[in-house]
Structure formats: C-alpha cells, structure tokens
Write a structure and sequence with these properties.
- The chain is of the alpha/beta class and about 220 residues long.
- The chain is built from six helices and twelve strands.
- Strands 2-12-11-7-8-9 form a six-stranded mixed beta sheet.
- The radius of gyration is 37 Å and the shape is flat.
- About 5% of the residues have low confidence.
Amino acid sequence: MNIPRLFQTAAFVALASAGQGTAKDLGTHGPLFEVEEPSLLDTIKNRLTEMEAAGELDQMRQEMQDTTRAYVNRPRPVPGLRKAEEYSIWEVDLSITLTEDLVDHQGIVFARAGTVVNPMAYSRFNKRIVLIDGDDPDQVSFALSDGDELNTLLVLVNGDPLGLMREHGRRFYFDQDAVLVNRFGIQNVPAVVQRADPLMQVEEIALGKNGEVRQ
C-alpha cells in the first residue's frame, strides 16, 4: 500500500468537509457591471452616420446609380454568338406535351396529361423578330431595311438599345438571358424568326457591306 498517497487523500477529504461546514459570505469586492451586448440596429445606425459624415454614402449611391445606368444602356451580351458567314434556315416546333391534367376554376379537366399543345394555334402574334449585334452597323442597317414598328421587333444580342433608339427613332429590345437565342437555337446573327404555321421559321443571314444580303 502507498502510505503517503493514502495520507494525502485523507487530508483532502478532511479539508473539503471542513470547508462545507465553515463557508461564509465574504462580501462583494469591486463594482459589478451588467453584461450587455451592443444593439445590432444601433451599430448599423452609428456606422451609417459615420459613412454619411465622411461622404461615403453619397459615393456609394453614385456608384450604384452608375452601375444601374451602365447595365440599362448596355446589358450583358449574349455569349457564344458569331456573325453569320452563310445562309441557313430551319424550323422550330413550339409544341409542348402536358405532364399533368389541367383543370379550370370549377375543377373540370379541359386538357389531359399527354396532350400535345401547340401555342401557335392560340396565339395571334405575327411579327418578325430580327436579332442583331447592335455594335455592327451592317446588321443595324439590315434590321432597319425592312418592316416597321407594326410588324417587326428589333432585338439586340449585344449593344446599346437606348442609344440606337435615340439615333434611329425605333424601339430596340434586348434578348435578356438569351431566352430567344436558346429557344430557337440561334448561333449566328443577324437572324430572323417568323411564323410558318404550324411551326416557327428561323433564318441566319450572311451580310455584305451596308447591310445587303449576301447571295
């Protein structure tokens, strides 16, 4: 048996027992402070006040305005497109197949799952859509050479739509997120999309100088 370790253990127990019997309140020493985290809202307000005093808020507002104005004037170009080097034509079927029954407000089924629906049968849209690179003067000339506001939509895949509107007095749209390019499988511009019931017809057109169609 380890005698010294036994005495150490006995002494520890005795001290612990004595402490329980003689413990007393020694009072408070020094000031006590309530633990309080700073308010997140107050922190934000203080930071904004500092930024305003330093002119940082005005600078931030101006940068946001400049960024927004730049995006409106020149949206992000549709990537991957090239200038058409030869004529190409194809058709696109816009039909969809329903994956579930369609019901009206009274719960009556008016179209069953598996039904093929061609939106062309229900749409009166009959405008030509001309997609061009607005930074190419030849393509702009081609787009403006035929049609008007009533029968033709001019759609940019690159360029400054507002600038072209001011210059030519025509509305120019932009293919945001490449919706039209992807839907019709366009790889080159200029491209013309128009009805060819019951399908849509797509043409990619090679141009010569001054926007003339190259034969």
